[in-house]
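A reminder from the course coordinator: this example appears on the midterm review sheet, so study it carefully.

Given structure:
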């Protein structure tokens, strides 16, 4: 089966974009918990409460438990969903060509 060079270049470009987004996601994994904690503490102070060591300890413990899920697994699930949609569209194209080929072979000319 012949694949045009333009399609290959587009796919390489998409793979490059996907790799860039994965790198951004990984860097977000290391930075996000600190930014979220900072935003929570600032909000806590601006609402009029006093920031204590107990509040900081409990909040950091909670975010350390949730860190892997929030910053790694959730964006990774979105990326896997996008890859799944691409794979299913490719499978549909292949099945279409297979059906078209066998239908055209097995159908007698009128």
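Designed residues:
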């Amino acid at each position: 089966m012949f694949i045009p060079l333009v399609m290959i270049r587009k796919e390489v470009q998409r793979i490059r974009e996907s790799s860039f987004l994965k790198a951004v996601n990984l860097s977000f994994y290391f930075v996000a918990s600190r930014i979220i904690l900072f935003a929570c503490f600032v909000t806590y102070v601006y609402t009029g409460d006093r920031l204590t060591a107990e509040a900081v300890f409990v909040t950091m413990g909670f975010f350390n438990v949730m860190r892997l899920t929030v910053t790694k697994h959730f964006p990774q699930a979105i990326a896997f969903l996008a890859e799944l949609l691409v794979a299913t569209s490719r499978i549909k194209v292949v099945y279409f060509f297979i059906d078209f080929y066998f239908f055209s072979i097995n159908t007698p000319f009128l």
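The chain is about 85% helix and 0% strand. The helical segments are 5-46, 53-106.
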